[in-house]
């Protein structure tokens, strides 16, 4: 059980990182420093961006649940 949770934890961490990096830059932070600010915001948030948000949140919840489960297994033995 612990090994399965650890594998899911690593996979979800990698996927959350990938999903966050796939998001479009919204502000004038580091994305505008490297040329991201040149783009115009003619279109609002698209269906793809909304789905990407949902996938990111879903994977983050899985990541948090795995961390809590692994801590409970470690604390109470298992």
TrEMBL record:
Name the record gives this protein: Protein-export membrane protein SecG
GO molecular function, one term: protein-transporting ATPase activity
Location in or out of the cell: Cell membrane
NCBIfam families associated with the record: secG
Task performed by this protein: Involved in protein export. Participates in an early event of protein translocation.
Gene Ontology terms describing biological process: intracellular protein transmembrane transport; protein secretion; protein transport by the Sec complex
Annotated gene: secG
Similarity section: Belongs to the SecG family.
Membrane-crossing segments per the record: 55-73
UniProtKB keywords: Cell membrane, Membrane, Protein transport, Translocation, Transmembrane, Transmembrane helix, Transport
Domain of life: Bacteria
GO cellular component labels: plasma membrane
Membrane topology, record value: Multi-pass membrane protein
InterPro entries to which the protein is assigned, alphabetical: SecG
